[in-house]
Each structure stands twice: as C-alpha cells, then as structure tokens.
Design goal:
Elements (H helix, E strand, L loop, with lengths): L1 E6 L5 H10 L5 E8 L5 H8 L4 E3 L2 H5 L3 H8 L2 E6 L8 H6 L4 E5 L14 H9 L4 E8 L9 E8 L6 H24 L3 H5 L1
Parallel strand pairs: 1-2, 1-4, 2-3, 4-5
Antiparallel strand pairs: 5-6, 6-7
Bound molecules: 5-O-phosphono-beta-D-ribofuranosylamine.
C-alpha cells in the first residue's frame, strides 16, 4: 500500500474526492493532509475521516527540512498538490522527484504561473474569449506550473459562460480525473508501464 500526502490550502473539494476514491483502492491511501492555513476547510474534512493533518508555516516549510521527517514517519511515497499555493522548496522537489504532482485549473502552459490560481484563471480565460479550457496535471519542479505535463482534459467555453460557469465545468473535470490519474501513477498497470 502506497501512502499519499495531499497538500491543500483551501476548500479541499479535490482532496475530499481523492481521499474517498482511494479509500477503495487496493494500492494507495491518503495518509496525511498538509496545509499552510490553520483554518482551511480541508483540515476539517481530513479530521472527519480520521486522517492525520499537519499545518506548516513559512519558516517550517522553507527554512527547515523537518517536513521530510514527518513524511517519512507516515511512510509517504507520493504527494498530490490540490490547491496548494506555495512554491515547493528545492529539498522537497528533490526528495519527491517524479513522485509529486500538481493539479492546475487550465490548459498549461497557458494561464499558469505565479498569481494564476482560482477565479483569476477563469476570469483570464473568459477575457481572452477562449473557446475551450480544462485541467492540467503535471509533475512538480521548482517553478510554478512548469513541470512536465502528464495529463490534460478539456471542456468547451460557451460565449455566454461566466467565470463561475467555467469554474464549475473545470471543477467537474478535476473531480472526475485527478483521483483516477493519481491511482494510475501510484499503481501503474502492466499496460501503463509498457506505454
Ligand atoms: C483547483 O481548482 C485546483 O486546480 C487548483 O486549486 C483548486 C483547488 O480547489 N490548484 P479545491 O480546494 O480542491 O476545491
């Protein structure tokens, strides 16, 4: 059984989907939820499900490597960033190289980078008159949203869609695909390995 840590700063709707989906998985479980916000609803979600939580502040995250000890303590083999807004420090990128992925609510490389998160992304997509948008799941490196892309899914943007409409469509894609993709990355089938 591979243990997954989910890092999230906000509501945690994706974290919830991941936890619940992997609860049925033969090979992966969410074992820890990490947040930089002590009041983040994602922490309440985790506690309700008896999943250990860890709140980190900037000094803990950037000026020490104590997080690696906690991740080792929980035997964490893989990390999913689901709405975690801080840049990941080099020590953590190195320790989980190709074992840490991020979910982004647009089709990277467009609409990514520092400051491009949440409704800002959907407002920018709307302002540009894009005919479609979607989600990107990518490996994490030391720069915002620049790691190698693993998976994208698309949805149309109608001319009268508001940014909130776009957000709903994108969130539906996230909830559908992210948990399943994580399971495939963590426990590849022989076909995945051959591909
Ligand atoms: C998602 O849109 C994800 O793509 C982005 O942050 C958002 C998190 O939403 N990285 P939630 O907290 O999981 O609802």
């Amino acid at each position: 059984m591979t243990h997954l840590a989910v890092f999230a700063s906000g509501t945690g709707s994706n974290a919830r989907c991941i936890v619940d989906f992997l609860a049925q998985s033969p090979c992966a479980r969410v074992r820890l939820v990490v947040s930089n916000k002590p009041q983040a609803p994602v922490l309440a979600m985790a506690r309700e499900r008896d999943i250990p939580t860890l709140v980190v502040d900037r000094a803990y995250f950037y000026e020490s490597e104590r997080l690696l000890d906690v991740l080792a303590e929980y035997d964490i083999g893989f990390i999913a960033l689901a709405g975690f807004l801080w840049l990941v420090p080099p020590y953590l990128v190195r320790a989980y190289w190709r074992r840490m992925v991020n979910l982004h609510p647009a089709l990277l490389p467009a609409y990514g980078g520092k400051g491009m998160y949440g409704m800002r992304v959907h407002e920018a997509v709307k302002a540009a008159g894009e005919p479609e948008t979607g989600i990107t799941i990518h490996y994490v490196n030391e720069r915002y949203d620049e790691g190698d892309i693993i998976f994208q899914a698309r949805c149309p943007v109608a001319p009268d869609d508001t940014p909130a409409d776009i957000a709903r469509k994108v969130q539906a894609l996230e909830h559908e695909h992210f948990p399943r993709l994580l399971e495939r990355l963590i426990c590849p089938t022989p076909e995945d390995t051959a591909a």
